Amino acid sequence: MSDPVTAADGHTYERDEIEDWFFAHSTSPLTNQELPSKDLEPHSMLQKQIHDYHRQIDPKYRERYLVF
């Protein structure tokens, strides 16, 4: 996961994947319930944790990706 977002169902998804899902659906992929909105909110805390993890295990990660 590199760009986590939270959807109206309160679950976190990879942005590209949930956008693809929303292209054909207006429901949650986990509950199949209709969502009130297709708006996505960045999950900044999780994204920072993911970047921190990658920086720890891969010294060249910092050179390849924008870090906070």
Strand content: 5-15%
| Biggest β-sheet description | 3 strands, antiparallel
Total DSSP E strands:
3
Radius of gyration: 14 Å
Structural classification: alpha+beta
The coarse silhouette is elongated
- Report the uncertain regions: none
In N-to-C order, the SSE pattern is: EEHEHH
Number of helices: 3
Please give the share of residues in helix.
40-55%
Task: Describe the 3D structure.
With 68 residues, the protein is α+β, with helices and mostly antiparallel strands. A 3-stranded antiparallel beta sheet has the order 2-1-3. The chain is elongated, with a radius of gyration of 14 Å. The model has no long low-confidence stretch (mean pLDDT 89).
List keywords for this structure.
68 residues, alpha+beta, 3 helices, 41% helix, 12% strand
Summarize the structure.
By secondary structure, this protein is of the alpha+beta class. It is 41% helix and 12% strand.
Question: Strands, helices and their partners?
Answer:
Elements: E1 4-6, E2 12-14, H1 15-24, E3 41-42, H2 44-57, H3 61-64
Antiparallel strand pairs: 1-2, 1-3
